[in-house]
């Protein structure tokens, strides 16, 4: 009995732990989705830091300080934009040539190898590293050297298909990892490297407590990401998919918040969520990874993504197509149901109405008929009144035409041919009416868009700003673009509306476009969004 109870408790505990892990996994993936949507903000934050250091570099006068600032810029660009990292290596070389120091020469060589490794130039990176003799290096450069050459062989291992060559590179990676462990002081970095070694040697269970202890100590974001990623490797070795996804997501979240573009966690995570049946999220992750790899010029990461991008893309497209088909089916079903309900409602209403009518007595029916007759009589009177008014309007209009005809007849009978032609040809009335029409248009438009003139001028250069003259509401240029704001973009319609030639309208539009602050080709689209 006790054994059965113990078994039930054990199963229940496992079930609760599983549910808790799934909830944690879902929450971290939602945070990751949000971080991807905020990539532009994180990029701007990183660019702001880079801009500040560049400004300090421009104002620096000491070559040692300049060398240091170039090193900071190299580190900021290394996993963000490899080409720019190469540029600051060259700047470091220049400043070091002004005050040569052997340790700096070695640091620059390792910098060069590291960025070449990020760019996928592994042979060139190794050639650079093989010119360095480790026994001649001081402690900081020696650690840097072993970290870089181990990473380089690790990348070559990941990027090699031939199993024999892969095994060779793997042994080299292990060799340099062991060398690194010998020189690293006790601390977080050494424990992470040690845990990595233990995982690869089949001791994942022993590595996990070490890494969890590392995470309780003070770490910078890069070290924390390294620890999280190593934990994901440990759970991968243990076949614990939920925990592997959780720690990959934690790693990717740090990468995105820091606007790192060369990374492995997110694309690996994309493959795993795809295998768990979430192609939409997988597509989002792999698409983000591909864009970042291209922007950074990280060839290995780009190749890794392109291996499984077509598979995820096809699954995503198939899911969208299926959702579209289901949407159409659902729409048709709802439409059919709505039609059925309308017909049913009409049938019930008709039946109830008939029943109500049958219950009414003859007296009430007669009263309704009397009321209906009175209503019809009233309606007839209203029609008579409106017909009379209509006829009166017609007669009045005929009288005005007759008066105008007689005035012209008098001029003709008096042989005042010149006055007759002048009256016929005079455009004063039309001009005045057109002026009044434009004034009404301007007033109505500015009631709809009271800030139009101010917002429109914000799109123009200082010397191109337009202000109406005293007494004007809108001038010709503003009126043309007011029409464009209302959606009238056809030049023929604008010309007809304003009474100008087509060439005049084209000249006005071209003249104003050339004064735009931003993209001249998109100027009118900007106006339509005011």
UniProtKB/TrEMBL annotation:
Positions of the DUF6377 domain? 255-495
Q: What is the originating organism of this protein? A: Phocaeicola plebeius
Q: Which UniProt keywords apply?
A: Membrane, Transmembrane, Transmembrane helix
The lineage's top-level taxon is Bacteria
What Pfam families does the entry give?
A: DUF6377 (PF19904)
Q: Where are the transmembrane segments?
A: 329-349
Q: What is this protein called?
A: DUF6377 domain-containing protein
